[in-house]
Amino acid sequence: MDLFTPATEVAAAIRRREVSPVEVLDECLAQVDRLDPSLNAIVWRHDEAARADARRVAADVAAGNELPPFAGVPLPIKDLTPVAGWPTTYGSFGAPSSPRDDEALVVTALRRAGFVLAGRTNTPELGPIPVTENLRYGVTRNPWDPERSPGGSSGGAAAAVAAGMFPLAHGNDGGGSIRIPASCCGLVGLKASRGRVPAEVVGWLGATVEGVVTRTVADAAAVLDQLATPPDRLAWYHVPPPEASFATAPGADPGQLRIALLTRAPLDLPVHDGARDAVARAGAVLERLGHHVVPVDFELVPPDVLGAFLHVTGAGLGDFPDVDFSKVEPHNAASYQAARQVDSITLAQSITTLQRLARDVLWHWGRDFDVLVTPTCAIPPPPAGAVLAQVHADPANLPADVISLAAFTVPFNVTGQPAISLPVHEAGGLPVGVQLIGGPYEEGLLLAVAAQVEEADPWRQRRPPQ
Questions:
Q1: How far apart, in whole angstroms, are the C-alpha atoms of residue 335 and residue 129?
Q2: Domain span including residue 376
Q3: pTM over 0.85
Q4: Domain of residue 256, CATH code
Q5: Which residue in 60, 89, 393, 399 is a FRET match for 362, CA 20 to 30 A apart?
Q6: How many domains does one find in the chain?
Q7: Is residue 366 part of a domain?
């Protein structure tokens, strides 16, 4: 089977008995053996346990048993997310290497969907920077150009999928951590609405959302169905149920929509020409599809919001009670100490600031336009290893590359809206993504529009050099 076959098609081939789940897994692991020494996307493997799971799926197929939707499809888990029986090191020397007893709800949902869990992907230590570099495991590299970063924090996941190691990979997104690496690596990256995917504890006020990086919109939609159901009646946030299965959205007619194009970066940061060209290309495609496309210009993020968001993310370091902060990297040690100096009143004021920002941004949807298109990142992928060196050299301050990579993505973690990065363009031999943002809880509409773009301007055959 082609190593770049989308997950839904791999699952269908397994059900039709055209390929064995053991064969699929072995092909994936062989690709890891071949390419990971140079890319460093996979940091922990448990091959024999994965093969045992694949053999169980093969037995179910042979017996004609009812199968879950993704039975036998291999998928790695990001090294920030607990899996029962696996270590969770957060990319840090400060974390224990012992197996965990607990398991995140998203992992349980992925198991229930039939995925064969196959190893861990790299992440920046504790996940706060938008590249995938740490001292414990080293630098992950972009399959399109190993001298460049794959983005982050789900950069190990994106590098693995872009290189053909796996059909898709688990990730999570608290400030762009699925969408940024999807853009850097030529993939589809969906961040669902706040509360859409159940989690025991909502990170960063619900800004953090679990998901996957995929090759196609159809894969993103079909996996969201599995992650979002059944509804979690114990959850902090409750979202309205979708009108239909998300898997039906690709191919559905969204009607004629008002599409707005925004290339002005928050904080008036410079925007690379390739990113502007990507938005123009997406706009032209959407106009040909019959939508009403207009440029807009408004301020996504007032200057005081960055500090408020950093107060919240700093407080989120308390989500790592098993980490010894005397052993973490300099930038995380600095963030931890800074967070301890923020008093409760200041933190409460920061939360209020973010809530007000969300209201100021959200009112545009349904009033001025239906879908907003922006660059996913203001800059191309930075050189591999450069950002880690920068944050270690000046731990108390964010480098310009960190802010520029996440400038267009963070606002929609704050607002909680669904957003998706699509690999519509290339510049300088590297993929360039655009971000489509839908109104609150409008994943179905967003996926329908994204699938229209994919069909009109296909990217599936674009692959990195092997």
A1: 12
A2: 7-456
A3: yes
A4: 3.90.1300.10
A5: 399
A6: 1
A7: yes
